[in-house]
Amino acid sequence: MIAYPVPQIIETSLSEITETRPVALITSPPAWAAAVHAGLQLAPTWRGNVQDATEAQFAALAAGYPGDAEVVYGVGGGLAADAAKYLAWQHGLPLVVIPTALSVDAHLTWASGVRRDGCVVYLETGPAQICYADYRLLAEAPPHVRAAGICDLLSIATGSYDWRYAEERGQNLPQQRWLPWAARMAHELLTAAIEIAPAAGRGDHGGLRELLQLLALEVQLCNLLGHSRPEEGSEHYLAYALEAHPAIGAGHAHGDLVGPAILRAAGWQHQPTAPLRRALQAAGVPLDRVSEAVFAAVERELPAYVRRHGLAYGIAHDLKT
């Protein structure tokens, strides 16, 4: 097993970054504009704009890169980070990420999530070496994505439940066996995330800093375990299936789907949802992006969906439809 590290987190104003190496840049026009407005001064030799998280687009970006840089920068949200990880992996280059919103934990992970056959598949690309955090920039992100990465902490409630649920039914892989101590550690991160949700949602610099620290701890715990069962389960599966539904499709922020999916999964598990709902709302995560009719339709097909895609066992496998 490879236990990847999280990137070195450097808290700084973007105007203080000095980069002398030739840069290949992965970004989107809105994210790049926000970073430049915050003082980032990069002169990339090549720039790729990423629009969706399909494996084909990531491969096309990597194929179109002319090979004239010494470092890759990913500037933006989780999509830019995942595409930049893919490019750096394909060309053997070091990677720097600059989040423009704490919308997801992807800036800190070792994998690139790509869409394949209506589901999310994680490619082992390796992590970034550096993650620059400019809290002034992060505080100015749109409210619905500013702190939406809290979903990857609140999903500990449902992901850890699924992990133990699978253990009790003899469904965990040997390398993913239930570890009570790891579950307790994850629960502490969940408790802390609920506490800091209002400050992060407001864009308080201290709240955003704590959110980033909690995300780093969550990612590092999963890195050391070698899997993401403490924080990824039926709530993420539901979000993946929603994204594949024709009425939803790509283009939604991570939290738009995972946030409400956490509440649905917690309900299936007979867990209290009120604390999770309050934390999601305090963090600015929208809970109205999916209609009840679409939820009902996707939930009916979810047991077949998780089996078809070979997803780790959880309560979604046993939903009565």
Key attributes of the depicted protein:
321 residues, alpha/beta, six-stranded parallel beta sheet, 13 helices, 48% helix, globular
Notes on the structure:
- It is built from 13 helices and eight strands.
- The chain has helices at residues 29-37, 55-64, 78-91, 135-139, 143-146, 151-154, 156-168, 180-202, 205-225, 234-244, 254-268, 274-282, 292-308; strands spanning 8-11, 23-27, 46-49, 71-76, 95-99, 111-116, 119-124, 130-133.
- The strands form two sheets. The protein has a six-stranded parallel beta sheet with strand order 1-8-5-4-2-3. It has a two-stranded antiparallel sheet with strand order 6-7.
- The longest helix is centred in the middle third of the chain and has 23 residues, at 180-202.
Rg, alpha carbons: 19 Å
Strand order of the largest sheet: 1-8-5-4-2-3
CA(first)-CA(last) distance: 38 Å
Give the biggest beta sheet: 6 strands, parallel
Strand content: 5-15%
* pLDDT averaged over residues: 96
Can you tell me the residue ranges where pLDDT is under 50 for at least 5 consecutive residues? none
What's the helical proportion of residues?
40-55%
Task: Give me the secondary-structure topology.
Elements: E1 8-11, E2 23-27, H1 29-37, E3 46-49, H2 55-64, E4 71-76, H3 78-91, E5 95-99, E6 111-116, E7 119-124, E8 130-133, H4 135-139, H5 143-146, H6 151-154, H7 156-168, H8 180-202, H9 205-225, H10 234-244, H11 254-268, H12 274-282, H13 292-308
Parallel strand pairs: 1-8, 2-3, 2-4, 4-5, 5-8
Antiparallel strand pairs: 6-7
